[in-house]
Amino acid sequence: MIRNMKNLSIFVCICTAITLLLAITNTFTAPIIEKNQSASANKALFALMPDASGFEQVDTSGYTLPATVSEIHRETSGLGYVMTLVTSGYASDMVIMCGVRTDGTVSGAVCLSSNETLGKEKTYGEQFVNKDAAAVDAVDVIGGATKTTAAYKNAVKDALNASIILGGGSVDIRTEEEILADNLAAALPAGEEQFERLFLVEVLDGIDAVYKAENGAGYVFVMGEQFAGVLSNGTVVTEGVADPAALSGAVQRLEAVVLEEIDLSAYPDLLNTVLSAKKTPSGNFVVETKGAGYGIKGGNEYHPASGEYIVVRVSMTPNGKIIDCLTVSEAETDGLGDACADEKFYGQFVGKTEENYTEIDAISGATMTTDGYKQAIERAFAALSALRGGAQQ
């Protein structure tokens, strides 16, 4: 017992000594580390604004800035600002530093760190030098990296917008989702700000998208830049609509849609690739098909709901034109292949035919996912061909 107590005392003394040594070491090294970090940060600031005299950090608590802006330094002689922004491309936490002159042009931009797969984003910022807000969108994209490019461009635009706000100006910094929500609410106040996007099974000429109020109050039709609210009884409540009667008619068509289930047992060749098939009163078809993406070809995590496949819902006219497309389920890699569930990707198939459905922008770094999705679309066209011909014997 005495021996155990002695060993414990020795152990405690050793731990205490180590703790003291670490504390002493930290006392001496912490200022050095902090100084080196500060020097590195200052070097980056001057690299983006070479003519600067110096920088001071800006207290942003009194401003409403884009959510991506994490830190701002003001150039002391009034040349402009250098901002640090955190955004997401195909992966999270892409850190971009952007210099903005007082004349509203970019003095420099650099990606400090990212988890992107290509690495080309490291030098992409050079293309934004001397560009203003109007010219940012015209900058060439990174080949095969649509999402990374969009995130980088949006970060630069956020920096330019933040500069305007810091200078006392006003700018709309709402996200695309917030703008959409505001437009829907303004078009149909009776919808109480709760809407769902409809999967279209009928061709509605001149209409890009339809949103239905979850409380059943009516619909909002998107036609280019215009959002038109229509009550469920067909009354158009938005002023300035060119053809109110057409929208009233569209509501009647939407309310009248009843899908007829097709018995796939009559089509044995489709049973392995088509999950379901339906037909509208007007003769259009709605099919759900599956394609083998990375989730089945190479992944270790499988999606129970989709049976490991990408599941796609497609509505088509009898002559083979896609009315609408939707990713029902997917098991692809987070931050890469799961972009197939983004409307910006699957929306590319709307209006396509069997002749040109492959002419879409691929998902960067996710070839298997893209190919699997195209396979699902190919199977949808094959299903349409069979369904138009009647039951197979």
Protein model, in words:
By secondary structure, the protein is α+β, with helices and mostly antiparallel strands. The chain folds into three domains: 55-166, no CATH class; 176-256, no CATH class; 260-388. The chain is 33% helix and 21% strand. It has nine helices and 14 strands. The chain has helices spanning 2-48, 121-124, 133-136, 146-166, 176-187, 244-256, 294-297, 343-346, 367-388, and strands spanning 55-57, 69-75, 80-87, 94-101, 106-113, 195-197, 209-213, 218-223, 226-231, 260-261, 274-279, 285-291, 310-316, 322-329. The strands form three sheets. The protein has a five-stranded antiparallel sheet, sandwiched between helices. A five-stranded antiparallel sheet has the order 10-11-12-13-14. The protein is globular.
Helical percentage: 25-40%
Mean pLDDT: 85
Q: What is the tally of helical segments?
A: 9
Q: List segments where confidence is low: pLDDT < 50 over at least 5 consecutive residues.
A: 32-37
What's the main sheet like? 5 strands, antiparallel
Strand segment tally: 14
Q: How many domain units? A: 3
> What is the ordering of alpha helices and beta strands?
HEEEEEHHHHEEEEHEEEHEEHH
Shape descriptor reads globular
Question: Cα-atom Rg, whole angstroms?
Answer: 28 Å
- N- and C-termini, Cα separation: 89 Å
The strand line-up of the biggest sheet is 1-2-3-4-5
Strand content: 15-25%
Question: What would you call the structural class?
Answer: alpha+beta
